[in-house]
Design brief:
The chain is of the alpha+beta class. It is built from 2 helices and 10 strands, in the order αββαββββββββ. The chain has helices at residues 3-29, 51-59; strands spanning 35-38, 41-48, 67-80, 86-97, 105-116, 120-129, 132-145, 148-159, 162-170, 172-173. An 8-stranded antiparallel beta barrel has the order 2-3-4-5-6-7-8-9.
Length: 174
């Protein structure tokens, strides 16, 4: 057999062996399966609305004070890793602000982040509200009591109309 004929066969054998060995090595390095938990629940709190944001809302016929109520629901998925120290979190937080002032201001936040086993959490994502679109940066802590979780979160939404700051709490049941 000539070298020309042997080369493609030799290359095919080497690639087949290498891919099988590589796949075995990769599978050995992959972590175990991830467990997913749904920790959705009600949220309530307050938002500080800076003057520029209030002026922007006023230009749309919406009058609110410097502080307004927030009520809503957080749809949360928690992805638990095998080591149990950190968990990835994806949250959709749907809120209605200003009810205490006779105003209905919906907002939607999608926060992607992480939570430590001790309950400390942080995340970032998009925010859509009557003031426009912006980025939300959130941090907080969740305390557990039996099958109940009690989160307290602070979120900051910097935008071209000033920085809104919210403090929210609520509960979830495990």
């Amino acid at each position: 057999m000539s070298a020309r004929r042997c080369t493609p066969i030799l290359v095919a054998v080497i690639l087949t062996a290498a891919s099988r060995l590589g796949a075995q090595d990769l599978n050995a390095r992959l972590p175990g399966p991830t467990t997913m938990a749904q920790l959705s629940g009600p949220r309530f709190g307050a938002t500080f609305v800076p003057q520029r944001a209030r002026a922007e809302l006023a230009s749309k016929g919406i009058e609110v004070g410097a502080m307004m109520s927030q009520f809503g629901w957080q749809f949360e998925r928690l992805f638990l890793s095998g080591d149990g120290q950190m968990a990835a979190v994806s949250e959709f937080v749907l809120l209605v602000g200003g009810l205490d002032q006779g105003t209905f201001l919906p907002s939607l936040n999608w926060v992607i982040g992480a939570r430590h086993i001790g309950g400390v959490e942080f995340g970032v994502g998009p925010n859509l509200s009557a003031a426009g679109s912006a980025l939300v940066i959130a941090a907080g802590v969740t305390r557990r009591s039996g099958s109940m979780n009690f989160p307290v979160n602070v979120s900051v939404v910097p935008s071209k109309f000033g920085t809104r700051v919210s403090v929210l709490t609520g509960f979830t049941v495990r």
